[in-house]
Design goal:
The chain has 17 helices and 11 strands. With 503 residues, it is α/β, with parallel strands linked by helices. It has 2 domains: 87-276 and 462-496, no CATH class; 296-446, 3-Layer(aba) Sandwich (Rossmann fold), CATH 3.40.50.2000. The strands form 2 sheets. The chain has a 6-stranded parallel beta sheet with strand order 2-1-3-4-5-6. A 5-stranded parallel beta sheet has the order 8-7-9-10-11, sandwiched between helices. Helix 10 (318-326) links the parallel strand 7 (301-307) and strand 8. The longest helix is centred in the first third of the chain and has 74 residues, at 5-78. This is Probable xyloglucan galactosyltransferase GT12. The chain crosses the membrane at residues 7-26.
């Protein structure tokens, strides 16, 4: 028995130590797990804080980006794209416009204007009646009209009704448009009426304008109007019934206003804008197609002349032009307007599209509608005096006239020392091609598009150019007034176009 006692105690002792060890391990594991759990919870806490901070930062960044993203839009909303471009159109009593054209038959003696009053003044639309019409005008676009050259004031007014910066608040306006049909007022009284009748409506309008609050802003120097006739019709020098025209532009009120006409006398407050042509497209695509067409045409004639002789007009060179044209052995095409219908778009455009050069001598005045019809056809114009084009349409024609036209001094034609066939025949094909390309570039600038067409495909046409230039001019005059400069010279300066030479 004594021998087994120590062995038993050893077993008991080992068992006790083992139990202590197991218990310790269990407690250690619990502690570790507890520590891990605490550590995990702490980590989760800081992670959640970090995540919260990150979310806050991200949200704040997004908000700032949102503000930045909105700023352009808000700025765009705040930015007035019409600032400096607003135009106010006077609501004139109908006697100054609509009533004038209601009785359209006597507007021009010996000519019925009534058929041309339709389609906002563009005239009747040309229909595809035969193959010739389709080939000459490409009428499938629906943009060709029998437009009369005297309808410019009506066309301009219709375009102004759709101007994107037209305003009813005259205090916002940078310029004021007066929709007076001055051309038709004078034309209906040119024959058989005394000067009192011819001057009456213009005097009434001057009084009406002078009583309006808009007048006092710049005393009419921010006002403009458009006429479909030449400026000489409104500058009768004497109060004699036998003298031509009325005295509209000699009235003090109108002497301050700017007149846009088809031809200017070169007074400082007159500017020439293009005669209406037959083409009134609605998109740039139509223009591009037409430009490509006229640049690629094969032209049968070296030069052409559309017009009639002027046997009773002193100094006219038309007789010499017609004589040389008829003797050109097929190089020239002459369309005599005394025996042909020269108001027919198909006939006119057919001649010009078949000609390399188009002769543009002075008519009853310096300019003629034919200039713009020929440019529309891609025909290179030939001028015989600077007053027919270069010193007239300064807003529309390039300053370097040799790029798009030929100039032959009138005096050389009058004395018969110039041969048109020789002069024009010496110009090489490459030079002709470059000139025709320049002529094609002018086309969008000298047409009047259909009223109401807007959007990215909108064309900057003759109307748009005139509006921009008027706004620039009014801004210049306003600066001069603010600086106290003398405006008398600006509004009294005149140049004699017949004495101007091409530089």
């Amino acid at each position: 028995m004594k021998k087994q006692a120590p062995r038993l105690w050893v077993v008991i002792l080992v068992a006790f130590v083992f139990c202590l060890f197991v218990l310790f391990q269990i407690k250690k594991i619990d502690l570790i797990e507890t520590n891990l759990r605490i550590t995990h919870q702490v980590n989760n806490f800081f992670i959640s804080i970090g995540a919260s901070d990150n979310q806050t930062l991200t949200r704040n960044a997004d908000e700032r980006d949102g503000i930045r993203a909105k700023q352009p839009k808000e700025e765009e909303e705040k930015t007035d794209t019409c600032a400096g471009r607003y135009i106010y159109m006077h609501n004139l009593p109908s006697k100054f416009n609509d009533d004038i054209i209601k009785d359209c038959r006597p507007l021009i003696k010996w000519f019925d204007m009534c058929p041309f009053m339709v389609n906002s003044g563009l005239g009747p639309q040309v229909s595809e009646s035969d193959n010739t019409t389709a080939q000459v005008l490409t009428v499938k676009t629906g943009s060709w009209y029998s437009t009369n050259q005297f309808l410019l004031a009506v066309i301009f007014r219709e375009r102004m009704k759709h101007y994107e910066c037209l305003t009813n608040d005259s205090s916002l306006a940078s310029a004021v448009y007066v929709p007076f049909y001055a051309g038709f007022d004078v034309s209906r009284h040119l024959w058989g009426y005394n000067i009192s009748v011819r001057d009456e409506l213009g005097i009434k309008l001057a009084r009406w304008l002078g009583e309006k609050p808009e007048w006092g802003k710049m005393y009419g120097r921010d006002h403009f109007f458009v006429t479909g006739r030449i400026a000489w019709d409104f500058r009768r020098g004497r109060d004699e019934d036998s003298d031509w025209g009325n005295n509209l532009m000699l009235l003090p009120e109108f002497a301050n206003m700017t007149m846009l006409g088809i031809e200017t006398t070169a007074w400082a407050n007159e500017f020439a804008i293009p005669y209406p042509t037959y083409f009134h497209p609605k998109s740039l695509t139509e223009i591009w197609r037409w430009q490509r067409k006229v640049k690629s045409l094969r032209r049968k004639y070296l030069f052409s002349f559309v017009g009639g002789p002027r046997p009773n007009l002193d100094g006219s060179i038309r007789g010499e032009i017609i004589k040389q044209c008829l003797a050109s052995q097929g190089k020239c095409n002459f369309l005599n307007c005394q025996v042909n219908d020269c108001d027919n778009p198909v006939k006119i455009m057919k001649v010009f599209k078949n000609s390399v050069f188009c002769l543009q001598p002075s008519g009853d005045s310096y300019t003629r509608r034919s200039i713009f019809d020929s440019i529309l056809a891609g025909c290179i114009p030939v001028f015989f005096t600077p007053g027919s084009g270069y010193n007239q349409y300064i807003w529309y024609f390039p300053k370097e006239y040799t790029k798009y036209s030929v100039y032959i001094p009138e005096k050389e034609m009058k004395n018969g020392t110039v041969s048109l066939k020789s002069v024009l025949g010496m110009i090489d094909k490459e030079h002709i091609k470059r000139m025709r390309n320049e002529v094609a570039k002018i086309i969008p600038k000298i047409i009047y598009t259909k009223p109401g067409w807007v959007g990215p495909d909108k064309i900057e046409d003759a109307f748009d150019i005139a509006v921009v230039r008027i706004l620039d001019r009014v801004a210049m005059v306003k600066r001069m007034m603010e600086e106290g400069k003398d405006l008398q010279n600006e509004y009294s300066q005149v140049k004699d176009l017949s004495r101007l030479e091409v530089i």
